[in-house]
Amino acid sequence: QVQLVESGGGLVQAGGSLRLSCAASLRTFSNYNMGWFRQAPGKERELVATISWSGGTTYYADSVKGRFTISRDNAKNTVALQMNSLKPEDTAVYYCAGRRSINSSTRTYEYDYWGQGTQVTVSS
Q1: What is the pLDDT of residue 59?
Q2: Which of 38, 40, 47, 86 has the fewest CB atoms within 10 Å, i.e. is most exposed?
Q3: What is the pLDDT of residues 73-97, one digit of tens each?
Q4: Per-residue pLDDT reduced to its tens digit, 51-77
Q5: Average pLDDT of the chain to the nearest whole number
Q6: In a 10 Å sphere around its CB, with 0-12 CB exposed, 13-18 middle and 19+ buried, how is residue 58 labelled?
């Protein structure tokens, strides 16, 4: 059974940092493109960042570019999201997702597996 388990969420003041981690039980983790998405109350789920199977290619939403960094460790089956200079508008539930494809995607519906989400709250 495939599982993606996020951790690292919490409450932080504006300007602070958090590091999210996702542990994957995917058998061939290195074959998966991974992504972080987020969903704020009353809003649609949106892309935050993606990383290719090798880690060589990354993509960031404009709203987080320069502040967030996605990374992966294929030996440990983990993907991380380092979030710096957090803003109140970053408040959301953050989801880790996996896509079994050699091609990256920014589309939510093209991801095959999802974690349960972790809450990130940024106070002003």
Answers
A1: 96
A2: 40
A3: 999 999 999 999 999 999 999 999 9
A4: 999 889 999 999 999 999 999 999 999
A5: 95
A6: middle
Q: Which amino acid is at 50?
A: T
Q: Which residue has the tokens 């404009």?
A: 62
pLDDT at 102: 79
Q: 């958090």: which residue's tokens?
A: 18
pLDDT at 1: 75
Please give the Cα distance from 37 to 45 (Å, whole number): 7
SS (H, E, C) the chain: CCCEEEECCEEEECCCCEEEEEEECCCCHHHCEEEEEEECCCCCCEEEEEECCCCCCEEECCCCCCCEEEEEECCCCEEEEEECCCCHHHCEEEEEEEECCCCCCCCHHHCCEECCCEEEEEEC
For the beta carbon of residue 27, count every other beta carbon within 10 angstroms.
9
Task: Say if CB 36 and CB 49 are below 8 A apart.
Answer: yes
Structure-token match 């993509």, residue found: 59
